[in-house]
């Protein structure tokens, strides 16, 4: 199928691409589900937020920073017991998704928090003056108004995850990056490496364009 | 309208005993028996940061009567914004009491306060519309928050759009509107939950003069039609002149002068108020004119007098008769006829030449006619 590669490698390539898709999209979905409430909590309890509370804000911020500052390759091995607890195994694509999701949660929570901060404070004040509850302000004002920023944050996270997923090979996660290393580097097949790189570039380009298009679609400014 | 230009009433002996023109605007006299719509009592608000605490409100009390448009004017930092935000408790005063429509806001808990806020509309300088919602959805937003069913929301929006003249823009987003249109949406949104009180936070300060006029007349017309009480803050005295019934002037967290707009404009007491007033109606004596006046004859003096006509009296007759009676030369330096709200007034500056005693007598005589005469310095600031 890919003319310059042996047929067996084409199959491997397809399988690896599927694994990469699974790892990136799977963990980004988890990251959005966990990261958005976390970001709302960070925003609400932050200084100048809807209900400032240092006791809630600081530990969460600290935890997020800790995850973000641990190199991903180390994070992956360091949390193996946790991975085994969640995924039932510490090897394979599913297992790789646990550290990937964790890193993505920390990453996206900060990006989401920043996007929420971009929302004009005047709009929040207007909602308060109308008698909106805190929950209403968060769900009906902040999130819709921050939507373009939130979508951009998801795009950035997806792209970063493509890079992270290349390290998933260390725990047998597979994926295109892993294939590139094993065949392209360790077996001296530069054409495999080049193919992987090209596919990844196209993949990232596609993600970015899709993200930009969505941002434009939701942007009413 | 311009009664004071008509029949000379100078010869009328009754005029000598008449009190100062009562210039009564029949509807909006001083707050009468009706309880005030908004009552602020001894509000204090301090901002404690690093360094010395800043007293944004230093014991402010004022009452707004139902149905009136009450203006609070002041420079930035005077505390007017804090004061307005204390009315719906967006900001909580450190001490003092806020009562709106008979309900003591400062005594309410969170939930009751949210409920009370739904009865108070607010309009903002920068409109504060939700950029992700259309005009119609913005107007419906307060109703959505209050849990009003969709069909009712839609009916209310359909009522409000023509009121603010935005039927055509129903499905536009705020970014597609001009400043004036955005503020119309802001006003419609503020009116959506049928409030009895409307707070305007520098509602026209981001708009050009023409649009400002449009928005102000919209505010006045909704007040008339919907029987609203309006409290507005502004740094522009022209806004006060255009629509307010009463005004309070604020400086350094205190109300330094308050009263009917006509009175404050025609007889400002505090120097700051005078400066505000002169911004709108200009100086009584245009700068540079005094230098061009002829010097007084030996033994005589030159005095600059400001004469305010408010109510029925005649300008010409007063000047010529005073001149004859007291043997003075009266030189009209400037004069203007204007109206504040619905009330006309005339303001004239005279250079009086003659013996000091005669000038004093003439002044007393004119005051007896019900004119407001004051001596102004030769160096108008």
From TrEMBL, chain A:
Record keywords: Cell membrane, Membrane, Transmembrane, Transmembrane helix, Transport
Recorded topology in the membrane: Multi-pass membrane protein
Taxonomic superkingdom: Bacteria
Residues spanning the membrane: 20-42, 62-82, 94-112, 150-172, 192-215
Record-annotated ABC transmembrane type-1 domain positions: 17-211
Primary residence: membrane
Pfam families: BPD_transp_1 (PF00528)
PROSITE patterns referenced in this protein's UniProt entry, alphabetically: ABC_TM1
InterPro entries: AA_ABC_Transporter_Permease, MetI-like, MetI-like_sf
Localization annotation: Cell membrane
Family: Belongs to the binding-protein-dependent transport system permease family.
Protein name: ABC transporter permease
Gene source species: Roseomonas populi
Organism ancestry: Bacteria, Pseudomonadati, Pseudomonadota, Alphaproteobacteria, Acetobacterales
